[in-house]
Structure formats: C-alpha cells, structure tokens
Hints:
- This protein is an alpha/beta fold.
- The chain has 2 domains: 10-61 and 305-397, Aspartate Aminotransferase, domain 1 (Alpha-Beta Complex); 63-303, Type I PLP-dependent aspartate aminotransferase-like (Major domain) (Aspartate Aminotransferase, domain 2).
- It is 37% helix and 18% strand.
- The protein has helices spanning 10-17, 51-54, 63-73, 87-97, 110-125, 145-150, 175-181, 205-218, 239-243, 288-303, 306-327, 349-358, 381-397; strands at 30-34, 37-40, 45-48, 102-107, 132-136, 167-170, 186-191, 194-195, 201-202, 221-225, 249-252, 263-268, 331-337, 340-345, 361-362, 364-365, 370-373.
- The strands form 4 sheets. Strands 4-12-11-10-7-5-6 form a 7-stranded mixed β-sheet, sandwiched between helices. It has a 4-stranded mixed β-sheet with strand order 1-2-3-15.
- Strand 16 and strand 17 form a beta hairpin.
- It starts with 9 loop residues before the first helix and ends with a helix.
Amino acid sequence: MDNKNTGIDIAGLQEKYVLKTYSFSPPIIFVKGAGAYLKDSTGKRYLDFSSGISVCNLGHCHPAVTAAIRRQAGKLVHVSNLFMNSRQPELAWKLVSHCFDGAAFFCNSGAEANEGLIKFARKWGNPTGRNEIIVMKESFHGRTLATLAATGRSKYREGFQPDMPGFVHVLFNDFEAAASAVGPRTAAIMLEPVQGEGGVIPADKAYLEKIRKLCDEKGILLLFDEVQCGMGRTGSFFAWQSYGVGPDGLSLAKALGNGFPIGAFILKRKFENVLVPGTHASTFGGTALACAAACAVIDAIDRENILLNCSEQSVYLMRKLGELAGKYTAIRSIRGRGLMIGLVLDVPASEIRKVASENGLLVLTAGDNVLRLLPPLTISVKETDKAIKILDKCFKKVKGS
Length: 401
C-alpha cells in the first residue's frame, strides 16, 4: 500500500525496517482519526470500539486535548526533572483531587508505572524483610522483566526466563487463596480491579473488601493496577471508586494522555517519603508537554460529563449485547463494568474480530474466546447501534454462531 500523498510504500518500509514484534491481521494503515472513527490509507472508515486498547477514551483527536498539546509545544516541551515545570504539579493536583490524598510520580507508560509500584513496595518492605508481592493469575502488568514476572499469564513470560523472583501468583477473586499466601515476607497484594488482558474479569466487591481488610490486619500494602480500567473506563474516574475500596497506591497510564504517552502512580500521603531523592527517576516522566495533554484530558472528563455518558451508554450497550446473545448461541456470557466489556464466546474471538474489521468495526480479543469491547467513553447511541448491527452480521457469518 502506498501513501497517497507521498508515494512512500509504508507497508514495505514496515516489513523491512521495523522489528516484527506485532502481527497485523488484517494489515491496515491508519492515517486519520476523529471521535469514534478512524480512516485508513485507502479511505475506508472504521468505527473504533478498541480505543487504542483503552487509550483514546475521549475519542481520537479530541479538540481540547489537541489544542492543549499545540499550545504547550510552542512554549516548553521538556526540561529535566532536576528542575520544575509548571504543568507537572498542576497535573498531580488534578489527579489527587480525583483520587485520595497523596502524591504522584510521573513516567511514560503503564509498565513503568507498575514498575514504580513494585519498587515502592520493595523499598517500603525491605527494612522489615518483606519483599514479596502477591499477584493474580491471568493478570497483566507490563512487558519489563519485573512486570512480566508479576503478570499472571505465563505465555507472556515464555522465552524470558528466569523470572524475576519476589512474586507469588494466586487465583483472582479467590480470597482464601490470597489469604493463605500471605507470609512473613509479604509486602503487598497487587491486582487489577478489572482484569483486561485476562478476559475482562471484574473483581467481586466482597472480594476486594476482604482483601482490603486482610492487608490492614497484616500490615501490608494493597496496590491497584488501573492502567486499563482507570480514567473513567468503568464509569467512575478510578475503578476502585465504583467498588468503594481504596488502595494504598495505584498505577495509571493509557487514557491519561488520550494517546500522548504518559503514565503515573499515586501513593497515599503517609507513604510519600518512602521514595526519596535518588531512589526513583524518569528522564521523560512528567514533561510539560505530556502533563499539558493529561490536564486537558481531566478537564474534558469533568466538563463534558464523560463519566455520566459512560454509565448511560454502558447500560444501553449491555442491553443491546444481551439481545444479540439471545440470537446467537456462540455468545455464552457478557461481563464487564462501564464500557469495559467482554463477550465470552464458543467460537474463536479472533474470527469475529476479523469479520468485524472487514465490515468497518474495530474490536479486540482477550485470550482465545473473549471478544473485548472498549469504545470511547464519548460514544453515542447511534454509534452503538451501528456497532451492534455489524456484530450481528459477524455472528451470522461465522460458523458455529
């Protein structure tokens, strides 16, 4: 495929010069995005129910975020963290105002944010000999060696052994499994309130409440990975707020910059002095440009009633998916929170994903049999109806539905 404007063979350059760490099925070159839609190099338009894996929660090229990036790029992009910039403390204040009283550290990605939480837990626990973290099976925390070791899906760790020590994997939503794993070396329990890559599996409220109580009783930390389920995705600003169970620290990234790379972790106020100067840093963490984008994201969420729209559209989408499940036996069940939804299927999810793409709808998979839907939180009823019509066509076409 050639770029119409330059005549450059983009697909050819990709094949020859980019490491093949991703598989493109089908191979699509996107060139433009606006709201819930993307356009490829051939001019074909797609309704995006993937949001860049819950990154573009405000839709593509949100006007306020785009304007903020343009303004800041003309003023100041980067100074090292040996100096202050005006946007980083502003962003920290906005985040803490939406979370719990505490302090934030800024980085570039979800993996880095989780790496920071892991370092915090070890730094906090090491003086008393506590350096192990209990994590969940089927979880996903990132691609660095530490976050891979914490990840509960073994397929991601294959070929990168030996695993970094210090992690104990237990069944998710199984309180007794977590409780029995706590020992004298346990520093923390770390989990996703809603597992994303693991199959869109929400935590049970009673389970989180018991885990919180257990951590308090044992004097250990509770850490939440909200990289995918945070920033409004479940209908509250942070996923933990819809459960009413707060952590001691949490990570976030993805939708924080609505496509501009930025990550962070937030710690409760009483832990703000664990990581002191020289113990943790990031060259590009919290640049003025990244923080300006993230500030615009938070302001848009508040100003445009994004959380309310997410909750309302979630109810509508769940109802329409339920009607679809009534027509096709291939849909075994539907689960999720807010606009983070998984369809558990009796057919390979990749087949539905492929047919959906051919018909102009972008969806994701989570494992072999879960179709993952992550539409923008700005989605409308009209756009949801269009997605349902395409999914109806997909299930009608795929054998076994």
